[in-house]
Amino acid sequence: MHQPLLLGTSRKPPMTTLSFGGGQDSAALLNLLIADPTFRKKYAPGLLTVLMSDTGDEHGETLTYIEHVKQLCQAHNITFMHITPDLGFHSAAWQSLYGQWDRNHTVQSLAFPRTCSANLKLAPMFRALNAHVAQVYGYAPSAPRRQLSALYAYAAEHGPMPMMIGFAAGEERRVKPAQSQVIIDTMHRIYPLIDLGLNRRGCQETIHALGGVTPYPSNCRSCPFASAHDLLRLELQEPAALDRWMGAEERKLAAPKWQGTRNHTVFANDLTIRQSLERAHLKYPGMGLQELNHIRFQRGHATTTSF
Question: Which InterPro entries match (predicted)?
Answer without folding.
Answer: Rossmann-like_a/b/a_fold (IPR014729)
